[in-house]
Design a protein that fits this description.
- With 477 residues, the protein is α/β, with parallel strands linked by helices.
- It has helices at residues 11-14, 19-25, 47-58, 69-79, 95-110, 143-157, 217-227, 244-255, 289-296, 312-323, 339-346, 351-357, 424-431, 436-445, 451-460, 466-475; strands at residues 27-32, 36-41, 61-66, 115-120, 125-131, 134-141, 168-175, 180-189, 194-202, 232-237, 262-266, 277-280, 303-306, 327-332, 358-370, 376-378, 382-383, 392-393, 396-398, 410-421.
- A seven-stranded mixed beta sheet has the order 12-11-13-14-10-15-20, sandwiched between helices. Strands 6-5-4-9-8-7 form a six-stranded antiparallel beta sheet, with helices on one face.
- β4 and β5 form a beta hairpin.
- α5 (95-110) crosses α6 (143-157), α9 (289-296) packs parallel to α10 (312-323) and α15 (451-460) runs antiparallel to α16.
């Protein structure tokens, strides 16, 4: 009997049999070739009879392996929903819809997924999970099932079940025997029907530590020195999904103590932290970023976290808070850490105020790391941009793909950072509005490692692939 303890079933294998066949024969597919199908089955199964019957039905050679009943049942419950007799479509009142949604959310959480995408097209509907930054298809649905699933999600999220013409946003808590977590639900009408994206949030990120995020020793020293100042602004830049929020929450967790009053304004509040006063923006009632920030001054804060500096108004308030003796933490969208300074000037902040209030400029990205189970060494030469000294490398690693990494070739992600502490010399450059080229020369003398250099180092160490780091290197030169 096979000693397997957990079954991971990819979409192409899952479609080999129907849910009815899976439950009737108590089988789970685990491999297929052009002429053969491999199934797990129960320990007490008559393998000869089952093999003969399945070969008649499927027209292929069948090979069977017996596994523990508990393992097989978990897989059946996870990957194959039972269908009621004579049912053609599923409705909101159907328990199977709610059961599928519950299992889907639990599965996504267990796999470390950040988002669940449920979408419909002409001939089919599908469910994809974002794992390590990439979308992986996990389930295919019948079109007849789709509306029932959307309705269940709407009911759970407190949304209007009858409204199908406008976007809707909601939130609800998902509870299991082991844990509980929140989901942020966004629904938008598309040409074929409503698309749902559910962002999985954690109710407690108290275990986040700056030491675990990916800073180098020097970067972490510079970062800690500046977040512990009496006043000033710390800004983190990067595209959506680059880990900025995680870095901010880890920072708040480190600064959190009985001696300080920490207040945040966010849209939305993604993680809740004990001991920190978090405010959710509600623009429909006038509770905007700027309105909340103005009221913060009357609540005696020491540290203020602003989810994002997105316009001139919030930028000016952040500067005013820094000038009046507060530490302000926030995010901003730029391509590099140094571009944060010019972005603030573009928002209407005078350069002399930027130079006197900005403590630290940080840029970060998330890089997928190669799966250690299946990565493969190769001697195929690759070239990087000429600005990286036209380096040509032969020995490096390729993403191959296996069951362990859902055939993506990657498992997990690692943050890379560019951390620029604004000292007197750099403050002078900002105040005098010097060019980026002049700043880069000085940054090199200060041994500030760029995003490109950090990504390149991960490639050299065999942690990630050429395809993963090349876009970062090319876009940051």
């Amino acid at each position: 009997m096979n000693s397997v303890t957990k079954i991971t079933l990819l979409t192409d294998l899952q479609q080999v049999i129907s849910a009815e066949q899976a439950w009737h024969y108590k089988i789970i597919p685990f491999k297929k070739t052009e002429n053969e199908l491999f199934f797990f089955t129960l320990p007490n199964t008559n393998k000869d009879d089952l093999k003969m019957e399945l070969e008649m039905i499927m027209g292929k050679t069948i090979l069977l392996e017996q596994i523990e009943e508990s393992v097989l049942n978990r897989a059946l419950n996870k990957y194959y929903r039972k269908a009621g007799e004579g049912k053609v479509t599923l409705t909101v009142d159907d328990d199977y819809d709610e059961l599928f949604v519950t299992r889907l959310i639990t599965e996504a959480h267990d796999l470390g997924s950040s988002d669940i995408h449920i979408e419909i097209y002409d001939e089919k509907a599908r469910v994809r999970l974002r794992i390590d930054g990439a979308l992986v298809e996990k389930h295919k649905l019948n079109k007849e099932e789709y509306n029932g699933l959307i309705s269940v999600i709407k009911l759970k999220s407190g949304l209007d079940i009858a409204e199908r013409r406008k976007p809707q946003d909601g939130r609800y808590s998902h509870q299991t025997e082991e844990n509980s977590f929140d989901l942020r639900v966004a629904i938008i009408p598309t040409l074929r029907g409503e698309k749902v994206v559910m962002r999985i949030l954690s109710n407690n990120k108290g275990n986040l530590l700056l030491d675990d995020l990916g800073f180098s020793k020097k970067e972490l020293t510079d970062y800690r020195a500046n977040i512990n100042k009496q006043n000033g602004i710390v800004l983190i830049s990067g595209p959506t999904g680059s880990g900025k929020t995680t870095t901010l929450y880890a920072t708040l967790q480190e600064l959190n103590s009985e001696e300080v009053n920490i207040m945040t304004v966010e849209d939305p509040v993604e993680y809740t932290l004990e001991g920190i006063n978090q405010v959710q923006v509600k623009e429909d009632i006038g509770l905007t970023f700027s309105a909340v920030l103005r009221s913060f001054l009357r609540h005696d804060p020491n540290i203020i976290m602003l989810g994002e500096i997105r316009d001139e108004t919030t930028a000016k308030i952040a500067v005013r808070l820094a000038l009046t003796g507060h530490i302000v933490l926030s995010t901003i969208h730029t391509n590099s850490a140094w571009e944060i300074t010019s972005r603030l000037v573009d928002m209407g902040i005078p350069s002399f105020l930027v130079s006197s209030t900005l403590n630290l400029a940080v840029s970060q990205r998330l890089v997928r790391t190669l799966c250690s189970k299946c990565k493969k060494e190769t001697n195929t030469p690759v070239e990087f941009p000429s600005l990286l000294k036209n380096q040509t490398h032969q020995t490096h690693y390729l993403p191959i793909g296996c069951n362990e990494c859902y055939h993506t070739g990657y498992k997990g992600r690692k943050s890379i950072y560019e951390v620029i502490p604004i000292d007197r010399e750099l403050a002078r450059l900002i105040k005098e509005d010097k060019s980026t080229e002049e700043a880069e020369v000085i940054l090199q003398t200060k041994e500030i490692r760029s995003l490109s250099e950090s990504a390149y180092q991960l490639f050299l160490e065999g942690i990630t692939s050429y395809e993963e780091v090349y876009p970062i290197i090319a876009s940051n030169f």
